[in-house]
């Protein structure tokens, strides 16, 4: 009751310093735990991007993966003896 699901005013200061002033806003002091919410960059109203950036931070820190894997499936190909080319 009385909470703010948009995490307060969206000012420049809050955009840079929320949820706490640190280099990686997605890490928390608990090892292996990452935060993805409207309080983390890029802020409220950008659905899913905070989770994407938190996952990238976790892959980089926990597994040493610096280039994220592709998120889209491979396009289907039409192979009928004429070579392969993506279907559009």
Ordered list of secondary-structure elements with their pairings:
Blueprint: H1 12-17, H2 49-63
Descriptive account of the structure:
The chain is an all-alpha fold and 88 residues long. The chain has helices spanning 12-17, 49-63. The longest helix has 15 residues, at 49-63.
Provide tags for this entry.
mainly alpha
- What's the overall geometry? globular
Strand count = 0
Low-confidence stretches: none
Portion of residues within helices: 10-25%
H/I helix tally: 2
Overall pLDDT level = 80
Strand content: under 5%
Task: Report the biggest beta sheet as strand number plus sense, adding barrel if it closes.
Answer: none
C-alpha end-to-end distance: 49 Å
Structure class: mainly alpha
Rg over C-alpha atoms, rounded to the nearest angstrom? 19 Å
Order of helices and strands: HH
In short:
This protein is mainly alpha-helical and 88 residues long. It has helices at 12-17, 49-63.
